[in-house]
Amino acid sequence: MKTEKGLLKEPKKKQDRSKQASRVTIIGSFVNIFLAIVKITVGILGRSSAMIADGVHSFSDLLTDIAVLIGFRMVKKPRDESHDWGHGKFETLITVIIGIFLLIVGAGLVYSGGLSIYRVITGEKLQKPGLIALSGALISILLKELIYRYTVHVGKEIDSKAIIANAWHHRTDALSSVATLFGVGGAILLGGNWTVLDPIAAVIVSLLIFKVSYDVIKDGLLELTEGSLDTDLEEKIRRIIDSTPGVLHSHELKTRRIGAQKAIDVHIHVSRDLDIVEAHDISTEVDRRLKEEFGEDSFVSVHTEPCDGLT
After folding, report:
1. Is residue 120 within 8 Å of residue 193, measured between CB atoms?
2. What is the mean pLDDT of residues 79-105?
3. In 52, 86, 130, 274, which residue has its Cα 20 to 30 A from 33's Cα atom?
4. 38 φ, ψ to 5°?
């Protein structure tokens, strides 16, 4: 139904989904600001370049938080004349952007860690940090793991790959703080050339970040390039359609994701002895069953064709 501005009314479910996404992201952004200030402060006081870099990493998380907030302002917009399929793809675009940020963070850790390792190999001694630097790492690990678990829970609840991707960005910060904790702790306890533990741990963590960013970017690009739903989901869709009374056979199934929504296009065969009302009722029942399973905001298109029997 059109509003006075020519826009479709926004479903309450989508409004609630956007509110949940915005709330968890805003909470995460405040955590990032707090941790960035704490890490940089204790890094300066504790003479720890690793902790200062970790603080800068927390500030970089704010960029993805901002991207998510801006993106979901677009996602929650109702369908309009220029976006007949809604604005769900903006959520996918956000997911890819977050994946790229994760990739950049991983590359930065490899570069800085590798440079520090090279300096040790060439005989340079890294500065021994103070005990206060450990406090920033411990606080970061605790808070970031908590915000990761909360964010990933919300992401799964609202079926948002963008929110789940942002949750993993929180965890990469926690992982980098783990590396900092071991590096700083090892440097303090062992001293001397053992300060190299910090950059070695950072490089190991970066490999985990690369894996996460690869998966996030791959899934996002698949959706942006109109990739189909996975095989198990398509088989489930076929079972729902073919088990509908009156459907003789289904074919030409096409599927894709539009953000959190699923789009399904299918052709069904029904008996040619049915009148148009009976055939329409069957296609309506297929539509109802699919939306009952995958959500009322799913895009379902059922093409009905007459048939003499099974083909």
Report:
1. yes
2. 73
3. 130
4. -65, -50
- CA-atom Rg of the chain in angstroms: 26
The pLDDT assigned to 2 comes to 43
Contacts of 230 (CB under 8 A, 6+ apart): none
| Cα end-to-end distance, the chain, whole Å | 39
pLDDT of residue 60: 67
Tell me the pLDDT tens digit for each residue of 158-202: 877 778 888 887 887 788 788 778 777 887 787 666 777 777 777
User: Which residues, at least 6 apart from 273, have a Cβ–Cβ distance to it below 8 Å?
Assistant: none
Rounded to 10 deg, the angle between the 161-190 and 89-121 helix axes is 20
Q: Mind listing the pLDDT tens digit for each residue in 213-226?
A: 888 788 788 877 77
Whether 97 shows a pLDDT value over 60: the answer reads yes
Percent of the chain scoring above 90 in pLDDT: 16
Whether residue 9 contacts residue 1, with contact meaning beta carbons closer than 8 Å, is answered with yes
| Strand duo 299-307 + 261-271: pairing | parallel
Q: Which residues contact 250 (CB under 8 A, 6 or more apart)?
A: 238, 241, 242, 266, 267, 268, 269
